[in-house]
Structures are given as structure tokens and as C-alpha cells.
Amino acid sequence: MGIPRALLVLCIATAFLSLGPRGSLGRSHLHKRQQSHGRRGNGGHRLQSPVDSPADPPAAGTSTTVTPSNSSSDSSVFDVRSFGAVGDGVTDDTEAFRSAWRAACSVESATLSVPSDGVFMITSTIFPGPCQPGLVFQVDGVVMPPDGPQCWPKSDSKHQWLVFYQLEGMTLRGEGTIEGNGEDWWSLPCKPHRGPHGSTLPGSCDSPVLIRFFMSCNLTVRDLRIENSPQFHIKFDACEDVHIEGLSINSPAFSPNTDGVHIENTRSVTIYNSMISNGDDCISIGPGCSDVDIQNVTCGPGHGISIGSLGMHNSEACVSNVSVKNAVIRNSDNGVRIKTWQGGMGSVSDISFDTVYMENVRNCIIIDQYYCSNKGYCQNQSSAVYVSGVTYANIKGTYDVRSPPMHFACSDTLPCTNITMSEVELLPHEGELVDDPFCWNAYGVMRTVTIPPIPCLQDGQPESLQEIPNLGC
Ligand SMILES: *[C@@H]1O[C@H](CO)[C@@H](O)[C@H](O)[C@H]1NC(C)=O
Ligand SMILES: *[C@@H]1O[C@H](CO)[C@@H](O)[C@H](O)[C@H]1NC(C)=O
Ligand SMILES: *[C@@H]1O[C@H](CO)[C@@H](O)[C@H](O)[C@H]1NC(C)=O
Ligand SMILES: *[C@@H]1O[C@H](CO)[C@@H](O)[C@H](O)[C@H]1NC(C)=O
Ligand SMILES: *[C@@H]1O[C@H](CO)[C@@H](O)[C@H](O)[C@H]1NC(C)=O
Ligand SMILES: *[C@@H]1O[C@H](CO)[C@@H](O)[C@H](O)[C@H]1NC(C)=O
């Protein structure tokens, strides 16, 4: 695949650059800037124009230069207030953040600090790399975008708000909150059933992803609270080595399209010890992802943990080696889901859901190879994304009886194979047992008897599957 290879090159290149002469050149340049502008040395007054000009090359914070030999950690903290941020929740602090970023970016192991006593409003911003290694974006206060589409600057992207681009070895963390102010976006009349009389008005309905990491590697996002995103809360595309830990993501159940964590074309991801409640997928894993390890995640309300949708518009999509362990899913429209469009190509393989506790979940276990977001307008097509090697172990709890707790709707032409079930015990949350799980073209084994039993899961390998389809991607 093109993108991950390009990414690898980027990561190697930036690693090389940061060790190479460019780092030191950057440093001496910074020293000069520092001296000529006398920043921060004179009592930390607000910085004015020199740093604000977008044409300015990256500039360094001061303490490094004031006491070059002092290697205490404070020497590389770049407080956005020192760059002119006001933090009153009203003033546009974008330029201060950009300046602080440029300064921090050019110093090794620097911290851009958003102090705990402020609410900082900034508009859609790209924070570009490459930067010196070890950069930390520390949010202890509140950072938020303008309040809804009315206040969104006309010239700004409506696809994304904070973008971290071409970074290596960066950390986003803090005790603070990234507040998305999403309410007015959720109720746009083009959003599902938000038009007059419950209609959905036509037209483009772009709403910004709150935080996006793009073409970056070795990233850590931890401890933050992220809430009320206009669209996805945090998205990684074309990234590698992503570590998420201790996040708390919150939006109401009725907020449309507010996936918690979304990854695509991203390899080697860990998502640990996080709580996500929202109006769409808790975690969504798109095409081109592999080696994803999810542990100790609590989801709900929302739409559960989802692989897909894959294969839209006859595209090729592969996802492999995804493990979900020790998850809790509550009050959700789905539990653990794999969804693909008809007409796609590629494969989903080596997927494990182990020790998942469900509480009042619809479609606890579901594979849907007939996914269609515009109900009724999807034609039957024969090609499909091949689903094989999916393990469900120790999945317990309760389901919403409006749907069967297990649902395997596999492709007519390409059956799902090697589905393994053990210790699956699901009971109605309220009401009558639904003891007719749904299977269509699903092959696999029950290692232990499931509750409810799933006799429709067929033994062995399907005859129709003469040879293993080309799994290439
Ligand atoms: C570094 O700076 C801090 C605060 O300015 C000071 O307390 C400390 O002694 C300095 N350390 C060295 C090694 O100069
Ligand atoms: C990843 O980044 C961290 C800093 O965030 C750094 O300490 C570590 O060495 C990096 N790892 C690799 C493999 O580059
Ligand atoms: C699957 O992913 C894990 C990380 O989540 C990795 O340690 C392991 O080596 C991968 N397995 C394969 C077969 O690539
Ligand atoms: C998951 O939670 C358990 C129990 O709290 C803990 O022992 C384990 O280290 C956690 N796993 C990860 C990957 O943090
Ligand atoms: C697709 O196939 C199903 C089952 O064979 C059939 O019920 C349905 O009408 C078909 N849909 C279209 C759009 O052809
Ligand atoms: C079935 O899937 C398991 C794990 O998902 C894998 O280890 C095994 O090799 C697969 N078997 C076949 C025949 O594909």
C-alpha cells in the first residue's frame, strides 16, 4: 500500500533529520532570533508581531537560550499565554497557539503548555511537523473551537479543527478538556431527521472532525477529556504506532456521527483504559488498519466497537490482526460489529473479541456484509470483502430483544469462514429470550455451547469456496 510506505519513509527521514545537522542549525538560528527580539527574557510580556507572521521560520522559546546550560525541564515549556493567548473563552487565541507551536516544535523535548486556568478559543488549525523529537502538547485548561457553524470562519475548513501533521514521537495529553461545542452542528437540518418534521434535508453536511492526526508516527494521546465533537472526536489516518491511554470521550447519545476514536490506514495501535460515550461508534476501524490492540475500554451509550464499513464503492479494503480484550459495552446499538458493503474486495482476518461484557446491547455480535447506509438503494453485487478468522470468546451479559444477539449476514458469494465461538452467554436485558440467532453463509465452530445456541453456524469449510480468495491489499 502506498500510504504506509510513504509514511515509513517520512518517519525514517524525520528521525534522520532530527539527528542530523538540521537540528543544530535550527538551534543556532533560534538563538539569534531570541537575542534580536529579546522575547520572554524581559519578564514574559506578550509577544507581538515577529512571531505572529506566518512567514517566520520556527522560533524557540527563551529559557533555553537564556541559560543554555540549564537542562531543567522548565527550560523547554512554552506556555501559550507567553505568546499572547488570553484564555477568556471569547478572544481568538489561534495566533498565539501557532506561535507557541512553532517555538516548541523547534526545540527537543519541548512542551507546549495550555494552562489550567484558561478557556482558549482557537479556530481550525494545522500544527505541522516535522518537529524536534519528544514534543508534548499539554492541555491542562480548556481548548475549544468557535461555537457552531454560525461562528465558524468562512475561510476555514469545515472538515477538521485541530490537525497534527507529519509528526514523529509526539504526545498530546493533560488534565484538561478539549471541548468541541458540537451542539449546533448536530442539529443542522441536513443531519439525519433534524430537518422540519423529522426530515433530513439534502445537501452537503460537512462538520469538523475535532482532532485529526495525519501522516504521523509514534504518537501518544493520554489522560485528556474530549467532548461534544461536531463529528468524529479523534481520527488517525496514515499513521503508525499510535498509543491511546486513559482518554475520556463524551457526547450525548443523540449526537450524530460522533465516533469516539476512528482509525484508517493506520498500523500498530493500542487503545487502553479509556471510556467513550457518544452517538456513533465507540471505536471505528476503517480500511488499511492492522495490529490493533484494544484493552480495558468502556463504551456506551453509542454504536459499539466496529470494524468497517469496508469496501464502499467497490473499493479494496483490508483489516487484520485486531484484538479487543476486557471491554464493557452498555446501552448501545451494536456490540462488536464487522460491516462491509457489497461489491467490495479485500479481507478482514485474524480478529479477536475476548472478554466483553454487554449490558442492554442490540446486535451484541454482528457481521453485516450487506451494509448500506442509504437503505434500499444498494444493489446486490457478487464481489465482497472476505471475512475469515473471527474469534468470540467469553462474551457475556444482556441484549436488547429488538434484535437477535448474534447475527452473521455473510456474502452470498463469499461466505465468512473460521468463526470461533466459546463461552458466549447472552440473556435478554428485558423481555423474552430471542433464541433464533441469524446466520447466512457463516462457517465456523462452537467450542462451547452458546446461549442462545447458534445451530445455524455451519461446520467446516464451505464447498463454494474452492480456493482462498486473493486477500491482497
Ligand atoms: C536551572 O534553573 C532553575 C530555575 O531557574 C534553577 O533553580 C536551577 O538551579 C538551574 N539549574 C542549573 C543546573 O543551572
Ligand atoms: C517514540 O516517542 C517517544 C517520545 O514521545 C520517544 O521517547 C521514543 O523513543 C519514540 N520511540 C521510537 C521507537 O521512536
Ligand atoms: C498482531 O498485533 C500485535 C500488536 O497488537 C503484535 O504484537 C503481533 O505481532 C501481531 N501479530 C501478527 C501475526 O502480526
Ligand atoms: C487492564 O485493567 C487491568 C485491571 O485493572 C490491569 O491490570 C491491566 O494492566 C490493564 N491493561 C492495560 C493494557 O493497561
Ligand atoms: C438482493 O437479493 C435479495 C436476496 O436474494 C433480494 O431479496 C433483494 O430483492 C435483492 N435486491 C436487489 C436490489 O436486487
Ligand atoms: C482460524 O482463525 C484462527 C484465529 O483467528 C487462526 O489462528 C487459524 O489459523 C485460522 N484457521 C484457518 C484454517 O484459517
Structure explained in plain terms:
The relative contact order is 0.07. With 473 residues, this protein is mainly beta. The protein is 12% helix and 39% strand. The N and C termini lie close together (7 Å). The protein has a 19-stranded parallel β-sheet that branches. An 11-stranded parallel β-sheet has the order 5-8-11-14-17-19-21-23-25-27-29. The protein contains 6 helices and 30 strands. The protein has 2 domains: 43-189 and 207-259, Pectate Lyase C-like; 281-374 and 381-473, 3 Solenoid (Pectate Lyase C-like). The longest helix has 18 residues, at 2-19. Residues 134, 169, 171, 218, 220 line the site of one 2-acetamido-2-deoxy-beta-D-glucopyranose. Residues 350, 389, 391, 418 line the site of one 2-acetamido-2-deoxy-beta-D-glucopyranose (NAG).
Compact overview of the structure:
This protein has 473 residues and is mainly beta. It contains 6 helices and 30 strands. Helix content is 12%, strand content 39%.
What are the key terms here?
473 residues; mainly beta; Pectate Lyase C-like; 2 domains; 19-stranded parallel sheet; eleven-stranded parallel sheet; 6 helices; binds 2-acetamido-2-deoxy-beta-D-glucopyranose
CATH superfamily annotation of the largest domain: Single-stranded right-handed beta-helix, Pectin lyase-like
Residue windows where pLDDT falls under 50 for at least 5 positions: 12-73
CA gyration radius, whole angstroms: 24 Å
Name every ligand kind in the structure. Answer: 2-acetamido-2-deoxy-beta-D-glucopyranose
Q: How many domains, in number, for the residues?
A: 2
Q: How much helicity do the residues have?
A: 10-25%
| Overall body shape | globular
How many DSSP helices? 6
Q: How many β strands by DSSP?
A: 30
CA-to-CA gap between the ends? Answer: 7 Å
The oligomeric state is single chain
Q: In terms of structural class, how would the helical and strand content be classed?
A: mainly beta
- Quickly give the CATH architecture of the largest domain: 3 Solenoid
CATH class of the largest domain: Mainly Beta
